[in-house]
From TrEMBL:
Superkingdom: Bacteria
UniProt xrefs under InterPro entries: Tet_reg_excision_RteC
Protein name (Swiss-Prot/TrEMBL): RteC domain-containing protein
Alphabetized Pfam families for the sequence: RteC
Taxonomic source organism: Plebeiibacterium marinum
């Protein structure tokens, strides 16, 4: 994984070697950086290990930043700082998640929640994504990450891999060539229709 990080930072350096980086290229690099973080840092469900991975990645970028910044463009310096700030946001989210988990645990250390999600994590991510896309919560004025954290708290489940999972959903094979890539939601519709039919 270290090599992937090195390659990405080299790619950033090459991109900013040109006279001007277009906004589309900037956004593409940020998306690639976000995906790299998802793969690089969230391989383990252990929060402490994720925290260590994020900090290690941050130190790597900081090292390159100090090594290059005396002789590189201001735009490259700003992008490297953006990469570091993105990691800081991930670290802050991790701390908030830990804080929420502590508040939902009683003095004895047992959870107040008696419900658990028994379908797959992929199914839950699909459901959350659908609710977010349809603006069902707060009229859409809520970030997807906040919804993920909410459902993680409700069901005491770890959905740290939701970014790459969404990417996989985007390239799914459609159901029966009808352009439907919502596998879980389609199953929900079928189950609901079957139940309603039985009530007649």
């Amino acid at each position: 994984m270290e090599q992937k990080t090195e390659r990405f930072i080299k790619k950033v350096e090459n991109a900013f070697a040109s006279e001007k980086v277009r906004i589309t290229e900037f956004e593409m690099l940020i998306r690639e950086w976000r995906q790299l973080i998802s793969i690089r840092c969230y391989e383990d469900d252990d929060a402490r290990q994720i925290h260590r991975n994020l900090n290690h990645l941050k130190f790597t970028v900081q090292w390159h930043s100090k090594r290059w910044c005396s002789e590189k463009s201001e735009d490259l310096k700003e992008f490297l700082e953006t990469m570091i700030r993105y990691i800081d946001v991930e670290l802050q989210s991790l701390r908030l998640k830990s804080s929420v988990e502590k508040r939902t645990t009683d003095i004895k250390g047992t959870s107040h929640n008696t419900m658990s999600w028994t379908a797959t994590k992929r199914d839950l991510i699909e459901l959350i994504s659908a609710l977010h896309s349809a603006k069902c919560i707060n009229s859409g004025n809520v970030k997807l990450q906040r919804l993920v954290e909410l459902f993680e708290s409700i069901f005491e489940i770890n959905l740290e891999y939701y970014h790459p999972e969404q990417n996989r959903m985007a390239v799914r094979t459609s159901i029966e060539n009808r352009g439907l890539r919502a596998y879980f939601l389609s199953d929900l519709v079928n189950s609901f229709n079957a139940k309603i039919q039985n009530l007649k």
